[in-house]
Specification:
Blueprint (H helix, E strand, L loop, with lengths): L1 E3 L1 H5 L5 E9 L9 E10 L4 E14 L6 E16 L18 E3 L4 E3 L1 H11 L28 H4 L2 H14 L2
Parallel strand pairs: 5-6
Antiparallel strand pairs: 1-7, 2-3, 3-4, 4-5
Bound molecules: zinc ion (2 copies).
Length: 173
């Protein structure tokens, strides 16, 4: 998710780029597997302001039945990125070490990977469900009850049925 912004950095403040993105993220450590949406970049006094409306597809495990599923979420990015290197002079731009900012590396690539990761993690539910009516797994045999049923709780009734039946049998003439 890298975009070369060398040309935009050389342009006047207020210059902008608008474009659409759509790509797969093949990184097991990134929460997103697919991203799509529109991006706007604006040259600012110090760097580039980025705004993006993205739809991200996120693979997750259901918190009730543990099945894997993917769902799309809408996220917005609204961040300023600062160049580490002055694009005109090649000089290192001095920024305070403790400044928690997003940087444009010395290759002049603006990388959306980390900003997308943070916005996605903030958008995800704490307890994801494969579907709202998910009935989860049987706590006795571990069967996923969305895919079938087990007899664990029916068997429990059997002894009582047996007692009833023996009573009824006793009353038979
Ligand atoms: Zn589920
Ligand atoms: Zn069961």
């Amino acid at each position: 998710m890298k975009y070369n912004v060398a040309q935009l950095l050389k342009e006047a403040i207020g210059s902008r780029r608008n474009f659409e993105i759509e790509e797969d993220i093949c990184d097991a450590d990134h929460p997103v597997e697919h991203v799509q949406g529109s991006v706007e970049m604006v040259r600012t006094h110090q760097g580039i302001w980025l705004r993006a409306q993205l739809t991200v597809r996120v693979p997750q495990d259901c918190s009730r039945c543990l099945d894997a599923f993917s769902r799309t979420h809408g996220i917005e990015l609204d961040e300023e990125f600062f160049p580490e290197i002055d694009v005109n002079t090649g000089a290192k731009v001095l920024l305070p070490d403790d400044w928690e900012a997003l940087y444009i590396g010395s290759d002049h690539n603006l990388d959306l990977t980390e900003a997308t990761r943070q916005a996605t993690l903030a958008a995800l539910p704490l307890k994801p469900l494969c579907r709202p009516e998910c009935v989860g797994i049987c706590d006795r045999c571990g069967l996923n009850r969305n895919h079938g049923s087990c007899d664990c709780y029916n068997l429990q009734i059997d002894p009582r049925w047996a007692a009833l039946r023996s009573l009824m049998d006793d009353q038979q003439p």
